[in-house]
């Protein structure tokens, strides 16, 4: 058996999340069906991070096992020929059997792209979040400092989260502005269910002037989701990449694809190095 890794991009608004469902309208379902056409047998894909309905990915990593002898190009061009337009395989690579897309990952990175203008988006609807009123960028930047490091993120954890522990190591948390778009960047060793959307919701609470920057530190201390602002919309959330140990031999330049915060094309590459 060979273990094959795929790097995948998809528009989450076209699917009901990653994880396979009986109705078949998920990213995993359409990918498994497409890979089956090339492999000639049933496959099960294991991904680095299961995304929710409406959440996008510029670099999702998944693996599957097969006894079919195919050139690596077949797992890209061949699979893409059987996929809907909203999902595409970027590259494939064979790895050792000790690689696992989820459990071998050292870090994951997300970006939330928020359009900050009085009028809601039309062309970018579903691809960016939106907030109509001005936001205090400096206050949100100051608030980000509190969540860097190892913390109990229970305040930002969905009630349905099944993780064994709410403790995560946050490597990167920052907010920037480009034109009328804000971009919220997070990288951590792992994320809880709805964690990024809950972090964005809390930071917007600060940006709107409804709380001081210390609000984030207080939420961490209280460790109570009921005291936190509502979960923000999924529209502008992108899984941008996964970092793995170099020993697995995956292309470093292919492990990160960050959408810039611009009005127009939020999927144009900004960086190819993993933080």
Plain-language structure description:
The chain folds into two domains: 2-104, Alpha-Beta Plaits, CATH 3.30.70; 107-237, Pseudouridine synthase I, catalytic domain, C-terminal subdomain (Alpha-Beta Plaits). The chain is an alpha+beta fold and 275 residues long. Strand 2 (46-47) and strand 3 form a beta hairpin. Strands 1, 2, 3, 4, 5, 6, 7, 8, 9 and 10 form a ten-stranded mixed beta sheet that branches. It is 17% helix and 27% strand.
Topology:
Blueprint: E1 2-10, H1 27-39, E2 46-47, E3 56-66, H2 77-80, E4 87-95, E5 107-116, E6 129-131, H3 137-144, E7 149-152, E8 167-178, E9 181-188, H4 195-207, H5 215-222, E10 237-243
Parallel strand pairs: 3-10, 5-6
Antiparallel strand pairs: 1-3, 1-4, 2-3, 5-9, 5-10, 7-8, 8-9
Helix pairs in contact: 3-4
- Cα radius of gyration in angstroms: 19 Å
| Second CATH tier, the architecture of the largest domain | 2-Layer Sandwich
- Report mean pLDDT, rounded to a whole number: 92
**CATH fold topology of the largest domain:** Alpha-Beta Plaits
Number of helices: 5
CATH class of the largest domain: Alpha Beta
CATH superfamily of the largest domain: Pseudouridine synthase I, catalytic domain, C-terminal subdomain
Strand content: 25-35%
Helix proportion: 10-25%
User: Would you identify the regions where 5 or more consecutive residues have pLDDT less than 50?
Assistant: 262-275
**N-to-C terminal Cα separation, in Å?**
33 Å
């Amino acid at each position: 058996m060979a273990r094959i890794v795929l790097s995948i991009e998809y528009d989450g608004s076209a699917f009901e999340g990653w994880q396979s469902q009986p109705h078949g309208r998920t990213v995993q379902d359409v990918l498994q069906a497409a890979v089956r056409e090339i492999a000639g047998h049933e496959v099960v894909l294991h991904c680095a991070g299961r995304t929710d309905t409406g959440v996008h990915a510029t670099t999702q990593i998944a693996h599957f096992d097969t006894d079919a002898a195919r050139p690596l190009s077949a797992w890209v061009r061949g699979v893409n020929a059987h996929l809907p337009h909203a999902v595409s395989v970027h590259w494939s690579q064979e790895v050792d059997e000790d690689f696992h897309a989820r459990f071998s990952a050292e870090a994951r990175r997300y970006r939330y792209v928020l359009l900050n203008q009085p009028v809601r988006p039309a062309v970018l609807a579903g691809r960016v979040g939106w907030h109509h009123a001005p936001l205090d960028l400096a206050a949100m930047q100051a608030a980000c400092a509190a969540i860097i490091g190892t913390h109990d993120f229970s305040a930002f954890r969905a009630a349905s989260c099944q993780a064994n522990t709410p403790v995560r190591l946050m490597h990167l948390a920052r907010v920037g502005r480009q034109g009328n778009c804000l971009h919220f960047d997070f990288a951590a060793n792992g994320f809880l269910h709805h964690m990024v959307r809950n972090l964005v919701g809390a930071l917007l609470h600060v940006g709107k002037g409804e709380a001081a920057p210390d609000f984030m530190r207080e939420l961490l201390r209280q460790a109570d989701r009921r005291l936190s602002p509502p979960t923000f919309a999924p529209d502008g959330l992108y899984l941008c990449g996964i970092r793995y140990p170099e020993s697995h031999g995956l292309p470093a330049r292919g492990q990160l694809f960050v959408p810039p915060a611009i009005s127009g094309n939020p999927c144009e590459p900004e960086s190819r190095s993993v933080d």
